[in-house]
């Protein structure tokens, strides 16, 4: 996002209230059109620089959606204004930016490689959630103590591990050790209990790459804080939540 600050010609408002009533929550669903706005495309290239990669997608009658480095923003159709933060529809009081992020996450959910994730399956699954977590995170470890209760209540949990370090770091190594263990669930239970897991087994390159994939996935969602709970409709809960509150949230979806 540093590229955004290169241009002094544009002031990005952290909090923008739209006076126009032309925006509505119902209109906020992106169309199926893949047509890129050529005017906005040209202005963004000028603003961000020719080497900066970005994506433009239709959002509603007032805005197009712009994604730069996994950051979702809204832009006026004429390319005159770029917004991030809250963008409020004064008629419905809906936050259009949250609607944009919700749609973005829903699109990404379908690309989650669940076969590569550590999964705690419910015998009679009623709900499925994805938790972005880290062994070194105290609240992640506290949330982990609720896994069995959640499974018994019909909630399947997929873990996306995002250790606080890249390949070669202590955080990455102990996460790999748990994920690549003979019994990954038992190993992760131990790691989440003690904050550490050591193994004499050499992790395969496939397993190491699997963890890299999970880190990349978290970046695509824009998640760095842990725990972050992702629901199937794209909604998120950041931070610890107890079992009863989580079940109530799931029932309300």
Write up what this structure looks like.
The chain is of the alpha+beta class. It folds into 2 domains: 2-109, no CATH class; 114-252, 3-Layer(aba) Sandwich (Glutaredoxin), CATH 3.40.30.10. It is 34% helix and 20% strand. The protein is built from 8 helices and 11 strands. A 5-stranded mixed sheet has the order 7-9-8-10-11. A 4-stranded antiparallel sheet has the order 2-3-4-5, sandwiched between helices. The chain has a two-stranded parallel ribbon with strand order 1-6. Strand 10 and strand 11 form a beta hairpin. Helix 5 packs antiparallel against helix 6. The longest helix is centred in the C-terminal third of the chain and has 17 residues, at 205-221. Residues 1-34 have low confidence and may be disordered.
Number of helices: 8
Radius of gyration: 21 Å
**How many structural domains in the coordinates?**
2
Shape: globular
Mean pLDDT, to the nearest integer, reads 85
Terminal Cα separation, in Å? Answer: 33 Å
In terms of DSSP E residues, the strand content is 15-25%
> Which architecture of the largest domain would the CATH scheme give at its second level?
3-Layer(aba) Sandwich
Q: Would you identify the regions where 5 or more consecutive residues have pLDDT less than 50?
A: 1-34
Biggest pleated-sheet summary:
5 strands, mixed
Proportion of helical residues? 25-40%
Please report the total strand number as a whole number.
11
Strands ordered across the widest β-sheet = 7-9-8-10-11
Structural class: alpha+beta
What's the CATH H-level superfamily name of the largest domain? Answer: Glutaredoxin
So what's the CATH class of the largest domain? Alpha Beta
Give the CATH topology of the largest domain.
Answer: Glutaredoxin
* Series of H and E elements: EHEEEEEHEEHHEHHHEEH
């Amino acid at each position: 996002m540093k590229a955004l600050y290169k241009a002094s010609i544009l002031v990005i408002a952290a909090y923008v209230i739209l006076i126009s009533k032309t925006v509505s929550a119902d209109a906020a669903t992106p169309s199926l059109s893949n047509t890129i706005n050529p005017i906005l495309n040209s202005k963004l290239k000028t603003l961000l620089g020719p080497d900066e990669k970005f994506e433009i997608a239709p959002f509603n009658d007032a805005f197009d959606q712009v994604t730069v480095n996994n950051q979702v923003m809204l832009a006026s159709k004429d390319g005159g204004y770029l917004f991030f933060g809250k963008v409020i529809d004064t008629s419905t009081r809906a936050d259009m930016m949250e609607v944009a992020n919700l749609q973005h996450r829903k699109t990404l959910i379908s690309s989650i490689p669940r076969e590569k994730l550590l999964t705690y399956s419910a015998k009679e699954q009623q709900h499925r959630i994805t938790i972005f977590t880290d062994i070194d995170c105290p609240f992640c470890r506290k949330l982990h103590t609720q896994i069995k209760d959640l499974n018994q209540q019909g909630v399947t949990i997929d873990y996306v591990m995002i250790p606080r370090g890249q390949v070669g770091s202590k955080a990455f190594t102990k996460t790999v050790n748990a994920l690549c263990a003979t019994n990954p669930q038992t190993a992760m239970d131990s790691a989440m209990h003690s904050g550490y897991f050591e193994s004499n087994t050499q992790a395969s390159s496939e397993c190491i790459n699997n963890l890299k994939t999970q880190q990349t996935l978290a970046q695509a969602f824009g998640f760095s804080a842990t725990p972050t709970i992702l629901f199937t409709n794209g909604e998120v809960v950041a931070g610890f939540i107890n079992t009863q509150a989580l079940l109530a949230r799931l029932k309300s979806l």
